[in-house]
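2024-03-11 09:14:02 DEBUG pipeline.ingest accepted 1 chain
2024-03-11 09:14:02 DEBUG pipeline.ingest length=291
2024-03-11 09:14:03 DEBUG pipeline.predict start
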Amino acid sequence: MAAGDFSDRDGLIWMDGEIIPWRDAKVHVLTHGLHYASSVFEGERAYDDNIFRMHDHSKRLIRSAELIDMQMTLTAEELDTAKREILEANKLTNAYIRPIAWRGSEQLGISAQATKTHVAIACWDWPSYFSPEAREKGISLQTSKWAAPMPNTATTASKAAGLYATHTMSKHSAEAKGYTDALMLDYRGYVAEATGANIFLVQDGVLRTPDPDCFLNGLTRQTVLSLAEELKIPTEICHIKPEELKNTQEVFLTGTAAEVTAVGKIDDLEFSVGPITRQLRDAYESLVRQR
C-alpha cells in the first residue's frame, strides 16, 4: 500500500455528491460503520484514463451493500459518473480508485434502520501492489492459522470491511516472519485465497483455482479465467488440498491491486515463475490498456 498518512495528502475526494479537499473528507467518531463494520468497498484501477471493468465494480459495490442489508442511494451509473469526475478532478489517468459506502452516525446500536448510507470515492497514483522485483522473482506466502468462514456465518460474497479483520491479522503474522503475504485456507481446510487476492496453481500444464464458494470471486480472477479460455489453457475450478501444493509448478495471485503476481514460495515450498504465469500476466497487462 502507498506510504504516508492517508488523512494528510493533497488532492480531492468525492463525498456524498460533492468534490471536496482531501483533508476535509471526515466522518464522526460515532459513525455506525466504524463501530459495527457496516461498510463495503471496491478497489479499481484506471489505465490510460480508462477504469478497468468500472461498471462491474459499481454493480458489485451495490450488491455488497445489499448482502449486508445496507441500502445504497446511488445507481451503478451514478457511481460510474462519480468515479470519472474524481479521476478528472485529480488530473489522474493512471490511478487506484477506492469507492466506499458506510452507515453514518444518524443511529448507533446494533439496529441501523435510521442511518444514512454515505458514499465516498478517493483516487491516487499507486503502482503495483508488489514491487517489480517481487513480481518477477515471485512473492512469498505463509499459511495462516485463520480460515475463510462458512457461507452461513458471514456474507462471504460481499466485499464487506468486516471480513478483512482476519486478513489483516494473517498478513501481520506473515510479514513478521519475513513473508510477503498470507495464504488463507477455508473452513474445511482447502486452499482459498491470499489476504487481498485470489490464487491460481499450474499443475502439469493445467490451470487450477479454488471454487469461490466461501470467499470473494474477484473480478480480476474472472478476467484471468476468460483469458485462459481464449488462450486455450486447460482450466479447472475445484477444491484444492494444501498437500497438493507439492505437485505444483507455478502459483500466482490475481486482484485489482495485485494484478497478476507470481508466487515463488509458500511456507517451505518453492515455485518457478513459469510460462503460463508469464503468458497470462502479459495478456492481462495488454487487456487493461485496450480502449
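2024-03-11 09:14:41 DEBUG pipeline.report DSSP finds seven helices and 16 strands in the chain.
2024-03-11 09:14:41 DEBUG pipeline.predict end
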